[in-house]
Amino acid sequence: MQLTFESLPQQVATLTEEVRILKRMLTEFSTTPVNHSETITIDEVCSLTGYKRNTIYQLVHRGHIPFHKPKHGGRKLIFLRTEILEWAKAKKVESVSDYCSRKENELSNRYNGGLE
User: Fold this and answer.
1) H or E element: which one contains 79?
2) How far is Cα of residue 109 from the mean position of the Cα atoms in its chain?
3) Domain segments of the chain: what residues?
4) 50: three-class secondary structure by DSSP
5) 62-63-65 Cα angle (round to 5)
6) Tens digit of pLDDT for each residue in 44-83?
7) Are 102 and 94 in contact (CB under 8 A)?
8) Looking at domain 37-116, does it have CATH number 2.40.50?
């Protein structure tokens, strides 16, 4: 479409409407809840964590990994993807460089007050 001075108001109105529609779509998209709490099997837990089935059963027995049991009882274990991912990320091991940086900051903060 040729852009002319005469068609400029119509072009701006069209663009304004398209931007309004896009904003509404983005707002709807960002507020739509995503169901990350889907139930997963023990095999999927093994895939997510890298642990073998026996290790997962030991973690369940010791209460070290989040799991659920059906209301009616039984032997079936139910895992929620979000809980397993949060559990896996819960205890980050500090790298050597992170440890050194933290200690340098602690020493700097401790001794800067006394040196100034």
Assistant:
1) strand 79-80
2) 33
3) 37-116
4) coil
5) 115
6) 999 999 999 999 999 999 999 999 988 887 888 999 999 9
7) yes
8) no
